[in-house]
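User: Second chain of the day. Same drill as before.
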Amino acid sequence: MRHYYVLNQDPRVREVFEFIQHHRLQVEVHLNRTRFWIAPGGVLTELLLRFSECVHHVDDSVDLATGRPI
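Assistant: Same format as last time:
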């Protein structure tokens, strides 16, 4: 599973939420961002084609608090 997020203040966040609900993705809503997991394949391709400017990949090799490599 790949880990992505969208900022909750993004103008297209509602569209991303609808996509997440439609595809029943695992999701965690936080104050500033919403994280979700998606399997590689057709749905991921659709997500990236539609929302590549507002959906971002979470890099597992970087500490999210500091931005430094683990």
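DSSP finds two helices and four strands in the chain.

User: Great, on to the next one.
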